Amino acid sequence: MFETNFQLAELSLAGLSSFAHSGDVVHPASPVVLPDDGRPLLLFLHGWQDNAASFDALFPQLSPACHWIAVDWPGHGWSPSRSADNYYHFFDYLDDLNQLLALLPERNTVLVGHSLGALVSGCYAAAYPERVTGLVLIEGLAPLSEAPDQAVERLRQGLKGRERYREFAQRFAERRMGSFEEALALRCAVNQLTSSQLTPLVTRAICQDEHGWYWRHDNRLRCDSLYRMSEAHAKTLMQAVPCPVLSIIGSSGFTRLKQPEGGFDWLRQAEQVEVAGGHHCHLESPQAVCDQIIKFLSQFK
């Protein structure tokens, strides 16, 4: 496993990869070069307030079958935050992904997204179907949507969220924890997962200074969206995805993903499988998830 950095136009993305890049940073003049061995490239995209290490348990088992890259979204893990005058709009993640893929070789590329990463992956495959060979969507399908009559309240609450952030930004920045163990325990309580399952993710999510331990992620991530698309918009995007899709859901994960309006029925060619676990089922059942991914990849050889 190698630490890798990808230079985009406005910022850089930190990440992990199965291969070493010849330079310190991947950029347009020094793109990723992979051996022509027929193995597909898997690009792992994590969920909200997670990071690239969310997929750590999958890497050893998948490496013989593919090349892989996992990135930290802006404001997550080791990636820098967005500029001070910016927030975290859903569609900006698609722009990040578009720039990232421009740095990668043109070959069979499968996007593996969890939660937020899954929503971004599906929308991107609709916009640029020629760049995506397949999708593996873990506990995520169609982009979040709501009825149009909620637009006014959504806007009001989103603006209030930004007001709260500005009011308490300094207080958020000064929050510290006494130890790594305290941070790990907090995350375990939130996600209802074990310390062994979350240690890689938390290790990449925190940093230490003379005052204690603190979370790396940008506190602006907690600000509510100013808008959400309608169900008609979400359905149109999912219906435009032409590539094969593997939907992996947890037995105790989001129940909406098992329902028709969750987005699965809108996809042209898709299979949904259930594994033991909740929203982070890839951490709870890594072997089952790897087995399903390897089976899915076999059709692209």
Automatic annotation (TrEMBL):
Keywords for the protein's UniProt record, in alphabetical order: Hydrolase
Q: Which Pfam families did the record assign?
A: Abhydrolase_1
GO molecular function annotations of the record: hydrolase activity
What are the AB hydrolase-1 domain coordinates in residue numbering? 40-190
- Check the record and name the InterPro entries matching this protein: AB_hydrolase_1, AB_hydrolase_fold, AB_hydrolase_sf
PANTHER family assigned: HYDROLASE, PUTATIVE (AFU_ORTHOLOGUE AFUA_2G14860)-RELATED, MONOACYLGLYCEROL LIPASE
Q: What is this protein called?
A: Alpha/beta hydrolase
